Fold ABC-type quaternary amine transporter.
Amino acid sequence: MISFDKVAKVYADGTTALDQLSLEVPRGRLTVFVGPSGCGKTTALRMINRMVEPTSGTVTVNGTDVADVNPVRLRLGIGYVIQSAGLMPHQRVIDNVATVPVLKGQSRRAARKAAYQVLERVGLSPKVATRYPAQLSGGEQQRVGVARALAADPPILLMDEPFSAVDPVVRHDLQNEILRLQSELRKTVVFVTHDIDEAFRLGDVVAVFAPGGHLQQCDEPAKLLSRPANNFVSKFIGLGRGYRLLQLIDGAGLPLHDITCVTANTLRDKPLPDGWVLVVDDGHAPLGWIDANGLRRHQNGAALSDTVTVVGSVFRPTGNLSQALDAALSSPSSMGVAVDEDGKVIGAVLAADVLAAVTRRRQG
Ligand SMILES: Nc1ncnc2c1ncn2[C@@H]1O[C@H](COP(=O)(O)OP(=O)(O)O)[C@@H](O)[C@H]1O
Ligand SMILES: [Mg+2]
């Protein structure tokens, strides 16, 4: 849908920001441009909406050279989100979000009404609508930035390091939000980041850039991990390469081991077996682990103290090997709690089984 054909950019001071970029951005997928700072990602992104003009080569959207399209008209059909959210500080959130629909000719009233729906879509409460941007947290501002870009329902969304300035927990939430939105909206998204983890989490396709504006490889994440095109790519993917591969292998075939489960009632009334036991609620959902060896007991053997260690992450068999390993390693008993889709405990996964599954996969 978006295509770069031998595109180069040399800025006025002689800096080569992009060198002979040829690349297809597929329709309806999320494509990530990733690479170290200064390697031309922003330059390439901003050529799509004509905020930067190529020195040579062509950028086409749906087969039309963008150089032939009026830049204002072009931008009304392309959402754009940047790191600082780019909100207008003197306008309330609702008017920030309604900006583009109003520019496109919608009445202010209709645009505001629609803006409330878009705010909800990006996970914001209607309460923020009447606030000014400075009265929001960084994460909320980024959500408003996304809402504003989506308000006119453009088929293309450009995102330039949108989550780089927020803390890791909020960033994770925002990434999940993008994945959720994208599974509903299926826009053509180009997402720029210098963070390889973010690239692998979000990208259907990942394009790796190197200094000097040279595209090194453009592939699906699994392919980049298993077949990096050269040393630069393999170094940039870095030490986590093997670990990241775990995310791409599904965990359905892992063996599930038995866990001793007790409810809060049996915990008080009956002797506990030795070792780790899992406390579950009446619906068999996990509540926490108890080390039965470490407990003081009544004479009848029932537990006196109920110090429960929270269950780490849980594993669902629809998940991947990374989630299984995380469940095992974050569990005080070394047994990762596996649950079915209703959240009921169905057994335990072990780190050794995850590693065995990876080995089998490599041999097979
Ligand atoms: N307007 C400009 N004038 C001169 N050089 C620029 C300009 N914009 C970017 N550059 C340079 O072009 C190179 C690529 O920049 P950029 O596309 O912003 O990279 P990235 O987004 O990957 O960090 C850098 O060396 C940068 O300093
Ligand atoms: Mg940049």
